[in-house]
Amino acid sequence: MLNASLRRSSFPSPEQARGKAVDQRSDIWSLGCVIYEMLAGRSPFRGDHGLAVLHAVVHDEPPSVTTARERVPAHLARVVHTCLQKDPARRYARMDDLLADLTSAQERRDAAATPSIAVLPFVDMSAGKDQEYFGDGIAEELINGLAHIKDLRVVARTSAFAFKGQTLDVREIGRRLNVRTVLEGSIRKSGNRLRITAQLIDVEEGYHLWSEKFDRSLEDIFEIQDEVAAAVVENLRVRLLTREKAAIEKRHTNDPEAYALYLRGHYFYARPSAENLERAIACYQQAVERDPRFAPAYIGIAGTYASLAIFALSPPRDTWLKAREFLERAVAIDSEISEAYVLAGTWAMYYDRDWDAADRSFRRALALNPGNALGHATYAWFCAFMGRFDEAVAGIRRAMDLDPLMPMFGAFCVGILAEARRFDEAIAEFRKAIELDPQCGLAHFHVGTAYFGKRLWDKARAAFERSLELTMFAGWAEGMLGLVFVEQGRRDAAEQMLQTMLDKRQQAYVSPACIALLCWKLGNIDQALEYFDVALEERDTLVPLLNIYPFLDDLHGEPRFQAFLARLRFPALT
Predict the structure, then answer these.
(1) Is-contact 341 361, C-beta < 8 A?
(2) Could you give the CA distance from residue 199 to residue 211 in angstroms, rounded to a whole number?
(3) What whole-number percentage of the chain has pLDDT above 70?
(4) Which residues pair with 217 in a beta bridge?
């Protein structure tokens, strides 16, 4: 039967049908046709005669395999779709890339066989429609609590909230998130009274495993969350360890007003802009004013400042000091919160450059909460900085499994693969990332690095220019564009870009590491060394990347640059 399928599906690739040059990507096309027919039970291209079939190969898009067979996993359907791209450049570059994606698909199916859940934001049913933050917050707190359970896979917030406001059937949501159950609900608040409904749904069969309605006062919100979490655990029949039960039931405040302010802070933090981040900090601060021992609210303040520092939205050194102040307050109150150790590891990595301390903090964070998607993603970058690329790739893929619709994690994966010099894989991952969010400037920035590594200067330039249009990261894209200009022999353009960055730095923060790299490539060695020192002093986020950037091979042979790296005390790359 397989041989017959191979004979029926041996369509020429579009480039072959046009009489153009072919390579291994034509073989990948043919394999895609075979897989398509095995899954869908029909050929991807049809016609009444040979010429009609060839016309379809060149001009027609085959229906998705899910059209013929709904139960084909989305990730596997995407693999076939990538194989059957008309443009060879949009297919897998190598068979290894295809096999890696198929392996990932198998891992996703294996994950689906274990207990898994997505907690959707609770719908605001209040008359004033002013409790959206509260419905989001309840769902997020349930996600955070359930994520502590080792034997339960819990989809992280970004992906679970991606369907907000849509009218998709829960079975479709479950299929897209690769989970077996979905928890949904609603909230209605009037004065001090709450009405909360919740239902746990088996997405395979579409029936309710459990549902409940709660008519309580606002002070009972903590008991309601405990009851919902307990119902989930009972109905999914997951094994609950003593420490996991304690983590789920743990209360960080008994003040419902402080809790509401904390949830409002999370609401703004999840919608980052300069204005919303200020609002988030203000809400968290009001929460700790009501309850000075509310540790997660201090972590919220610290995390907001850390985000501002990491992405250079404010001068990193001073902003990191603010983050540390509030992180220390949180840890003094409660030293068993996973998110605190993620921040501690991030601090040690970017500010102290204490690599051993960072490693210990990240490991502690993930031991406390194995479902901490951001913890896995941040630790993945740490491993990359240390040259531990296999761990880094595994870590970012774990984060993506926990939060599959988070565009930032897809961008991180592109970047880590590029730093590992797996350029073709990075480019393939970029295509997936922009399917989630075409406006993700960070993904464009990182794929520019991959194109740079492959010496595809025009594509690198286009990627960095697109990143510059979409992101606020001060100097990152500008510096890389300058390096592209140097490689293209456009010295005047590179020098003009450098002057633009120096002028901008008089009014706003611009990465000194990017300025230093461009100075060095232009031969301004003394100026480059000066700005490398400034980058260390200012705690520039890009400094750890200097240990692994794939286009710095010429600099790594320079004694003065080696002396600079020695001050960072990086472990030897393996």
Answers:
(1) yes
(2) 4
(3) 94
(4) 193
Q: Angle CA(93)–CA(94)–CA(97) in degrees, nearest 5?
A: 95
State the pLDDT at residue 9.
46
Name the maximum alpha-carbon separation found in the chain: 77
Amino acid identity, position 159: S
Relative to beta strand 181-190, strand 153-154 is unpaired
Q: Provide CB contacts within 8 A for 500, sequence distance 6+.
A: 478
For residue 184, give the 3-state DSSP assignment: strand
pLDDT tens digit sequence for 369-389: 888 999 999 999 999 999 999
- Torsion, Cα 488 493 496 497, to 10 degrees, reads -50
131 compared with 4, residue with greater pLDDT: 131
Contact call for residues 392 and 420 (beta carbons, < 8 A): yes
Q: What are phi and psi of 178, to 5 degrees?
A: 60, 45
d(CA 471, CA 127): 38
Answer whether 383's CB lies under 8 Å from 157's CB. Answer: no
Residues in the chain: 574
pLDDT for 398 beyond 80? yes
Mark out the alpha helices in 420-456 (DSSP H runs).
Answer: 423-436, 441-453
Cα–Cα separations (whole angstroms), residue 349 to 152, 201, 205, 246, 534: 30, 42, 46, 30, 17
- Give the amino acid at 442: L
CA distance 34 to 105: 17
pLDDT above 80 (res 240)? no
184 token code pair: 């949904």
Q: What is the DSSP pairing of strand 123-124 with strand 193-202?
A: unpaired
* Confidence tier at 534 by pLDDT (50, 70, 90): very high
For residue 446 the two structure tokens come to 């990182």
User: Which whole-number Å values give the CA distances from 238 to 70, 85, 210, in the listed order?
Assistant: 29, 42, 15
What pLDDT score was predicted for residue 288?
Answer: 96
3-state helix, strand, coil in the chain (%, to 5): 65, 5, 30
The amino acid occupying position 396 is I
Q: Are 45 and 60 in contact (CB under 8 A)?
A: yes
Sign of the four-CA dihedral 514, 515, 519, 525:
negative
515 Cβ neighbours under 8 A, 6+ residues apart: 475, 479, 498, 501, 502, 505, 531
Q: Tell me how far the alpha carbon of residue 490 is from its chain's centroid.
A: 35
Structure tokens of 347? Answer: 């601090």
d(C-alpha 417, C-alpha 425), whole Å: 7
Q: Which long-range contacts (CB under 8 A, 24 or more apart) does 269-273 make?
A: 269/300, 269/303, 269/304, 270/136, 270/157, 270/161, 272/307
Cβ(399)–Cβ(409) below 8 Å: yes
What Rg do the C-alpha atoms of the chain give, in angstroms?
Answer: 26
Band of pLDDT at residue 484, cut at 50, 70 and 90: very high
Assigned token pair, 180? 């077996």
- Tell me what pLDDT residue 299 has: 95
The span from the CA of 171 to the CA of 444, in Å, is 33
